[in-house]
Amino acid sequence: MRVLEEGLGAAALAVRATAGSVFVGQSLESLRCVAACGPDAKFLLEHGVPLHRGLAKRALGRRTPFVAASLASDPQFSTRSSHETQLALLASLHDGIRPLGILQLVNPKSPARFTARDTRVVAGLARYITTSLIQTSSLRRQEGLAAHDPLTGLRNVRELNSLLTRAVTSARRGERDMALMFVDVDHLKRVNSKLGHAAGSEALKRTGKALHEAAAGVGEVFRFGGDEFVVVQKRASKESARALADHLRSHVAASTAGPMRPAGTLPKITVSVGVATLQGLRNLNGQPPSDLKARLMTTADRALFRAKAAGRNRVVLATGRDDRPPTIA
Fold it and tell me: Helix, strand, coil shares of the chain as percentages rounded to 5?
């Protein structure tokens, strides 16, 4: 927003405009004011008043700036506005393929008209603002990729560590329980060896989707790595955690089998789940959140190991015996 505001301010100064605005959107319906300057800047930003449809359509459809006059019908300058538009210079923010928005500058000071030079200047500044929009969009995509697993689209381990620290801290402060679940895809190596790695990847994607669906509104799902996922339930008891884990397991088994593209059929996928609750750990008092987080993950992982050893496709709730210091050989 700061970059857009600076670009708008530079454009207004360059062409002596008394007011201006930047609208972002690729269609008439999606346009919204994201930056404004001049007497009615606060009004525009707070009320989200749109450009006149005919004017906006004309601006989005052009690649070069143009001047428009007699805008009495423009709703953004209503009777509630102290500033009346007499003249406007508009430029499409275009990336070469599609419009991204509109730059509008109004009512130039002396001389009270927009010149050919003003039009050229605004064309250059519109390109600068467009570049800023593209770079901002690219940065947001990169941040999203850094926080998410590329295969399943779920949040990754880095996001898990951040959320889990906050969740443990909040649970301890509120003297309430929470749960962590390690979920392991059963026999994924068999799928890879019989049907190929593409089928194994498809199994992971479908499992991630099923977990996300089953945990919606109750828990948060992360891709831990390999064939493992983690589910965090911020508010839980042993009973509710066990119930959610059973629901996760059954939903994966019920929704993963089926045809694959371009060919083949994925068999039913099952998962094993190890569940640990914060209140189920021993000796919580005086323990920093980082230590409790590590113990919670280790305890859930040990419960998962027992679920797999017992035959897979089942849920095992951790006990106090699972929360123990590692054995030193």
Answer: 45, 20, 35
pLDDT in tens, 136-183: 665 455 555 567 888 899 999 888 998 999 999 999 999 999 999 999
326 CB burial (10 A radius; 0-12, 13-18, 19+): exposed
Delimit the domains of the chain by residue range: 2-147, 157-322
Fold designation for 2-147: Beta-Lactamase (3.30.450)
Enumerate the H helices of 61-156 as residue ranges: 116-147
Give the tens place of pLDDT for each residue, 282-328.
Answer: 888 888 888 999 999 999 999 999 999 999 999 999 998 898 765 54
Global confidence as pTM: 0.60
50 Cβ contact list (under 8 Å, min separation 6): 23, 31, 32, 33, 56, 75, 76
